[in-house]
Amino acid sequence: MTDTLVPVDLPDTRLRIGGRSVDARSGEAYTSVNPATEEPVADIAAGSAADVDAAVAVAREAFEGGSWSRVAGAERGRILSRAADLLEEHAASIAALETVEMGKLYRDTVAGDIPAAAASFRHFAGWADKISGQAMALGDVGDQHRFGFTLRQPLGVVGAITPWNNPAVVAAWKVAPALAAGCTVVVKPAEDAALSTLRLADLLAEAGVPDGVFNVVPGLGDSAGAALAAHPGLDKITFTGSPRVGRTIASLAGEKFRKVTLELGGKAPQLVFPDADLDAALPWIAMGNFYHQGQVCAAGTRVLVHESIVDRVVDGLVDIAQSAVIGDPFDDATTQGTIVNGRQLDRILGYVDKGRGEGAELVTGGQRVGERGYFVQPTVFRGNNDLTIARDEIFGPVATVIPFRTTEEAVRLANATRYGLNAMIYSRDLATVHSVIPQLRVGTVWVNGWGVPDPALPWGGREASGIGRELGVSGLEAFTEEKTVHLGY
Ligand code: NAD
Questions:
Q1: Is residue 459 part of a domain?
Q2: Would the N or C end of the chain have less CB density within 10 A of its end CB?
C-alpha cells in the first residue's frame, strides 16, 4: 500500500450483501490508485450482474420481511442517529480513505465531507417518525359520510449509484432518507473511490441496521453499475454522476416505469454585480472554482462579471490561483490536492488547449504540476460564453471570466447553458438580488457565497443537471409512495 502522512486503515474490500462480506462471484477485483503517488491503494472486489442479482434479492427479502420497513419510525431514527454518531467518531479514518483514493484535501474531508455525511443521517433520523400524509373530511355522498387520508409508504428496494468526488456525502444524501423512509438499499459506489462506502456499510451494521437492509456492490460502471441500473427488482434508482450515464439510467427507468432521481453535472454561473463587496466575494468566487480542484458539480466556472470590475475580479482570482500550494493532499500546508485520475487530468489539459485554440486568453495556470501524481495548476481564462470551456463541464480548476454590461445580459448569459444546477449572485443591492433570483433557471441560488447543500433543504437541478430533488422534505418524500384512501361510513 502507498505511504501517506496519515495512516490509512483499509476496510474489508469485498461486497456487503445481507450483512456479510463476500467475494465477487466472478472472483474478479480491480485496483484503486492513489492519484497523488500513482501507487496502488487496494484491490477491490469487482461485482457483476450475478452479484447485483444477489444483493437486490437480499434487499427485497429484507424489505418484504419488514425488519426495517415495519419497525417504528422512532426506532429507525434511533439507529440512524447512532450511524451519525459513528460517522463523526470515525471521521478521521473515513476521510483518509477518501483522500487516498481521490486526492481531496484530507483536512477538508475530515472537517467538511464526513461531518456533512453525518449531518444527513442526523437530519433524516429526525424525520423517520414524522413521515405522515394528509387527512380531510370529504363531502357526503347520499347517506354516506366520507373521509379521506393519504399514507406515505416506503417505496421498496432502492438502487443507488454514486460518483467519486464526494463519495460518503453523496451516499448519505441517498441512503439516509431512503432508510428513514423504510426502504432497503443496494449501492454501487464509483470505482475510483469505493472504500468509504464499504466502511459506511460496517458502521451502519454497528449502528443496528438489520442485515440485508443496506448492501454494497463495488465494481465497474459498465458491469456492476449497468446491471444495477437495468435490474428489474428495483422500485427506484437514484443516480449521481455524469449526464452521459444519467441519460442511460433515465431511459432504462422509463422503459420499466421506475421512479428515478438524477443528480447530474453543472456549469454554474457566478454573477458579480458592480455593487458587490469584492473583498468578501473574491474568496468565495475562487473557492467556487478551485475547491476540490474544481471537481464539484456545483462549481461556479462561468464567472459573469460587470464590465466595470472585470479587471479587479481577474486580478483577484489570479492572486488566489497563484498562491495555491499544490501537493500532497494529506499535508496540512497544501491548499490544492490532485485530480482523481490520469484520464481526468488529460481531459482538463485538453480543455485548456481548446480554450486557447478558440481564442480565450489564458491569464494564469493551465499546466500539469510535476510528473508523478495528477496535479494541475488552478487556471483562469478571460473569454465569452460561447467557448467550449464555458459550455462543457470540465470538472477541473478552470475558471472562465465573462463580462456583461446589463443585468438583462447577465441573466441571459447565466441561462445560456444546457445545465441548471445552481447559480451564485454577488451584490449588496436587495432589488438586484430579488429580481434576478426568479429569472435563473436553476435548482439552487447562493447569494454572496457558495458551499455545501444543507440536508434540510432540497438539492437538484433541471435539464442536463438532472431530474428530481434530494435532501429536505422533497428528498425524503422521493423515497415514499403516496397512497390515497377514501373512507365511506
Ligand atoms: P460517471 O457518470 O462517470 O460515474 C458515476 C457512477 O456511475 C459511477 O459509480 C460509475 O461507476 C457509474 N457508471 C458508469 N457507467 C455506468 C453505466 N453504464 N451504468 C450504470 N452506472 C454507470 O460520473 P463521475 O465521473 O463518477 O462523476 C462526475 C459527475 O458527477 C460530474 O458530471 C458531476 O457533476 C456529477 N456529480 C453531480 C452531483 C450532484 O449533486 N448533482 C454531485 C457529484 C457529482
A1: no
A2: C
What's the CATH code of the domain at 68?
Answer: 3.40.605.10
Quote the pTM value: 0.97
**Statement to judge: residues 254 and 277 lie in one domain:** no
Environment class of 485 (CB within 10 Å of its CB; exposed 0-12, middle 13-18, buried 19+): exposed
Does the annotation mark 297 as catalytic?
Answer: yes
35, 159: one domain: yes
- The three three-digit cell numbers of residue 202, written as one number: 460496517
Which of these is catalytic: 183, 297, 393, 470? 297
Give the number of the atom of ligand 1 that is nearest the alpha carbon of residue 189: 9
Q: Are residues 71 and 91 in the same domain?
A: yes
Give the Cα-Cα-Cα angle 229, 52, 127 (nearest 5 degrees): 70
**Pair (277, 402) in one structural domain:** yes
- Amino acid (1-letter code) at residue 362: L
Cell (9 digits) for 215: 448492501
Q: How many CB atoms lie within 10 A of CB 372?
A: 9
CA 228 – CA 234 distance, rounded (Å): 8
Residues 219 and 359 in one domain: no
Atom 22 in ligand 1: residue holding the nearest Cα: 221
Q: Given ligand 1 and candidates 101, 165, 292, which is best to mutate, with the most ligand atoms within 8 Å of its CB?
A: 165
**Residues of the chain below pLDDT 50:** none
Domain housing 339: 269-454
Tell me: do 298 and 237 sit in the same domain: no
| Residue range 352-372, pLDDT digits in tens | 999 999 999 999 999 999 999
Q: Is residue 416 part of a domain?
A: yes
Q: Which residue from 30, 32, 98, 161 has its CB within 8 A of the most atoms of ligand 1, so it is best to mutate?
A: 161
User: For the segment 180-219, what is each residue's pLDDT rounded down to a tens digit?
Assistant: 999 999 999 999 999 999 999 999 999 999 999 999 999 9
Beta bridge partners of 214: 185
C-alpha cell read off for 164:
467519486
Please identify which residue in the block is written with the cell numbers 490536492: 337
